[in-house]
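Lab notes, practical 5.
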Amino acid sequence: MSNPFVAEIRIFPFNFAPRGWAFCNGQLLPISQNTALFSLLGTNYGGDGRTTFGLPNLQGSVAIHTTDRASSPLGTFPLGSSGGEDSLALLISEIPQHTHSVQAESSHRNTLATSPSGAVFGDPSPTLLYSQSTTPTLSPMNPSMVSVAGSSSAHNNLMPYLALNYCIAMQGVFPARN
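Output from the prediction step:
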């Protein structure tokens, strides 16, 4: 393996950290045994700064670019900050007030549609369920047929993923500033 920079993070597709590397799992390390690494990371990822410091924890997380500009459209992300949620339950305060009305074609002189795409509910008989009339006569249906859903249960909030191991170089070339 080429000489990495101290504190360089790489992704590995196997289940162990190579010699001279450690998993980015948030573990605390003694400063006395890792002075070069501590001088680069500080306490951005944990530790008390006197005897210990923390490694970044990228378990179940996605690395993003840091920004301290208030003008960033997504806000500010100082080095070492974390956020996001694995699962999420939407609250009423997070959903704009809105209604879902259901309409059906009130004239039963419609033609059979082979697909419900672009059609409205029509004659309730099994052969003429949907209408694709370009000028349907619409009537509102009973509002109680559309009800509240979700029961405040959390849903998965993870993007598609592939599990790999992030590792940080414990030794190597100390990066020069500028």
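Observations recorded by the TA: Residues 103-144 form one domain. The radius of gyration is 28 Å.
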